[in-house]
Each structure stands twice: as structure tokens, then as C-alpha cells.
Write a structure and sequence with these properties.
Structural class: alpha/beta
Radius of gyration: 24 Å
Strand order of the largest sheet: 7-10-13-16-19-24-27-30-33-36-38-39
Low-confidence stretches: none
Shape: flat
Number of strands: 39
Distance between the termini: 51 Å
Largest sheet: 12 strands, mixed
CATH architecture of one domain: 3 Solenoid
Mean pLDDT: 95
CATH class of one domain: Mainly Beta
């Protein structure tokens, strides 16, 4: 098996090299004015004299002291532990700086404008001349694809769907009854705009309720692979600007997410629940329907939320409760168990 490397050339196209000054500017950091040329990025443990690395977690301080990197992005508090042969790029936000520097060396591949011959674009669809439509994709009538977009292989953009500027739609994505803002990323296999889980119980079984809403993905939203977002039943399902959804997330009909929410893998949010701005939800957590989760609340992994959550609250457990109460109960149970031994 081939040796693992950061940004393997088989899969990632690297730009550069760049001067130390250019890298420091990209990091929004401060560095000595030295004549150093940097060719790429790498972890502390493997970086060489022509590469830049970073330290964000102090647990890896020993790796910093032993690194051979030409430059390293660090907090000013760690500057004294940078080896003499390595240049320190100082910033109070090392991880954000690393993200910008990595993007400098490995920018998002540019769009190749044009429609693949195997793609099907219906009469009445509008595809901007600067957009890329991949092989075997389907653009249905009335759909609009904005400037600079990329539509991946086998994607389906349903009738009437509008996709704003500079969006990326991954392979095998299906979009229906949806309006996308600018710079929206939808990763492979995601399903957006399908019918929500709505039905009436009758004596003979069930009666499906028409789902007449839409899905609104605001600017800079990211939707992970194989995530599903149901369209609204009577009002719209809305994902607020800047929110990030991990892979394998389920969003029910009429759910509203505020700005910059973070939803981790395998979370399920039932219909008509509202998450205010900056809510964070840990993996495999679940929320009942018709709840309101206050601004800045944090829902722990595998939590079961069955009631409204106050702004800024941190909850854990099933049913979810304040995190301090949860750990106090765990500690009490441990004491009781020891007492029975």
C-alpha cells in the first residue's frame, strides 16, 4: 500500500510554492521576515523544512518541540517551544489560520463550464454559461442553475429548483421543491425536498397529508453526504445561513435552523422544531417535534430532547437534562454500586 501523505498528488492538486510572507498573510499571522519558500502543508510529526504545520492542541506540544517543519502556526503562548530551525507564525486562532493556509495550497478545484453530452437538460431549464453540469445528471424544466455552479454526476435537479451562485452539488444528489442561496455545498447522496413524514390516522389505516412547503438553504450552508431534508408540509423547512450539517442527518418537515448551527452525524430532528442561531447538536442526538431550542444551546451526543431548551443551555442524557445534573446522577449511581459490592 502506498505511503500516506498529506494532500496526495493522486487526489489533490497543490498550488505554490509560496513565500513565508504570503503564507503568514494567508494565516492572518505574524512571522519573521525571512527568505523561506514553502511548498506544502503537513502534520508536525512528518513535516519537512519546506512545509508548514500547526499546533492547536497543547497535548501535542512534545511533537512541536521535535518537528522539522520549516514553519509552524502557533498561539503566541507556545512560541518559546518552537524549535530554533523552525519559523513561528503567530496567531491567536491557530486552527482557523491552518484552514486558510491549507486552502491556499489546496484551493477548491475550479469549475469547468459546460454541459456534459450525457446530461439531460429539459426545455425551460436555465443553466448559466459559467456553470458545469456533470455526466448523466438531469436538470428538469423550470430549474435555474446560477453562475459558477458545479452539478455532479447523476445529480437530479427537480422542476422549479433554484440554485444560487457558486454552489457545489455532489454526485447522486436529488433536489426538489428547494431554493438554494449562494455558495451552498451539498455532498454526495443527499436528498433534499422529498415529502415529509406526514399522515392522518383513520380507522382503515393512514391518509397521507400533502406536503406543500419547500426547503430553503440559505447562503453558505453545507449539507453532508446522505443527509435528508424533508420539505415543509404547510410552511417551509429552512436551514439558516452558514449552518453545517454532517453526514447522515435527518431533518423533518417544517424544521427551522437559525444561523451557523452545527448538526453532527446521525442526528434526527422531528417536524416543526426550531433551533435558534448557533445551536450545536452532538452525534446521534434526537429531538421531538414542535420544540424550540434556544440560541447557543449545546445538545450532547445521544441526548433525547423532549422539551424546549433555554438559550445557552448545555444538556445531555435521555431524557435530556442539564449536563451538571446528568453527571451528578452518574456519580451517585457509581457510589451506590460500590456500596452494594
Amino acid at each position: 500500500m502506498a505511503e500516506a501523505t498529506t494532500g496526495n498528488a493522486r487526489f489533490f492538486r497543490r498550488s505554490g510554492p509560496y513565500s513565508l510572507a504570503t503564507v503568514a498573510r494567508a494565516a492572518d499571522g505574524i512571522a519573521d521576515e525571512l527568505d523561506l519558500l514553502l511548498e506544502g502543508v503537513a502534520p508536525l510529526q512528518t513535516a519537512g523544512p519546506n512545509e508548514v504545520s500547526f499546533l492547536d492542541n497543547r497535548r501535542y506540544a512534545s511533537a512541536l518541540e521535535e518537528t522539522l517543519a520549516g514553519a509552524v502556526i502557533v498561539h503566541p503562548d507556545m512560541a518559546a517551544r518552537v524549535p530554533k530551525a523552525t519559523v513561528a507564525i503567530l496567531t491567536t486562532e491557530p486552527y482557523a489560520a491552518w484552514a486558510r493556509v491549507a486552502a491556499l495550497f489546496y484551493p477548491v478545484p475550479p469549475v469547468s463550464p459546460g454541459i456534459h453530452p450525457s446530461a439531460i437538460v429539459a426545455d425551460g431549464a436555465v443553466v448559466d454559461s459559467s456553470a458545469e453540469v456533470g455526466p448523466l445528471s438531469v436538470i428538469e424544466t423550470g430549474a435555474e442553475i446560477g453562475p459558477g455552479c458545479r452539478i455532479g454526476p447523476c445529480a437530479v435537479v427537480g422542476s422549479g429548483v433554484i440554485i444560487g451562485r457558486d454552489c457545489r452539488i455532489g454526485a447522486h444528489v436529488s433536489l426538489s421543491y428547494a431554493l438554494l442561496g449562494e455558495r451552498v455545498y451539498v455532498y454526495p447522496g443527499a436528498r433534499i425536498g422529498q415529502e415529509g413524514f406526514g399522515f392522518a390516522s383513520i380507522k382503515d389505516g393512514f391518509l397521507s397529508v400533502p406536503q406543500l412547503g419547500r426547503v430553503i438553504l440559505e447562503d453558505d450552508v453545507e449539507v453532508g453526504a446522505n443527509t435528508t431534508i424533508d420539505r415543509g408540509s404547510s410552511r417551509d423547512t429552512v436551514i439558516g445561513a452558514g449552518s453545517r450539517l454532517d453526514n447522515l442527518v435527518q431533518i423533518g418537515h417544517n424544521v427551522i435552523l437559525g444561523r451557523c448551527c452545527v448538526i453532527v452525524a446521525q442526528v434526527g430532528i422531528s417536524g416543526s422544531t426550531v433551533l435558534e442561531d448557533f445551536v450545536r447538536v452532538g452525534g446521534q442526538a434526537a429531538m421531538a417535534g414542535h420544540l424550540r431550542i434556544g440560541q447557543g444551546a449545546e445538545i450532547g451526543a445521544q441526548a433525547g430532547v423532549i422539551s424546549d431548551t433555554a438559550p445557552g443551555a448545555k444538556v445531555l442524557g435521555s431524557p435530556a437534562q442539564p449536563i451538571k445534573d446528568f453527571f451528578r446522577q452518574i456519580a451517585t449511581l457509581k457510589k451506590m454500586a460500590k456500596g452494594e459490592e
